[in-house]
Specification:
Blueprint (H helix, E strand, L loop, with lengths): L8 E2 L2 H8 L5 E4 L2 E2 H13 L3 E5 L3 E2 L5 H11 L3 E3 L3 H11 L3
Helix pairs in contact: 3-4
Length: about 100
């Protein structure tokens, strides 16, 4: 699934910019604000990167049914990470995974 053997997980914007210039195909965004998220994902996609977000760590986002819907429909993230089982179940239903 992942071609990268190491997937950078970033917290700061300055690190985000560095990873965009790297050879990594996938980025994990650990922390952000909901107001920044859409632009960060769009910017990463312009660089041909896949971006996964940690739903539990996005300030201003509730990791519930509607938050997951927002991430998949509006923000267009490539994947969602969570430590909460109920969020993972929601994501699987939303993305059609069993």
């Amino acid at each position: 699934m992942f071609k990268d053997k190491v997937i950078p997980a970033i917290r700061k914007i300055k690190d985000f910019e560095k990873v965009l210039e790297s050879g990594h195909e996938t980025i994990i965004l650990l922390e952000s604000r909901v107001s920044q998220l859409q632009n960060l994902v769009k910017y990463a996609h312009q660089y041909g990167k896949k971006i996964y977000v940690h739903a539990d760590l996005i300030s201003g986002l509730k990791a519930d049914k509607y938050g997951i819907e927002f991430l998949t429909n509006n923000v267009k993230v490539d994947g969602i990470i969570s430590t909460r089982g109920e969020v993972i179940s929601l994501v699987k239903k939303r993305l059609g995974h069993n």
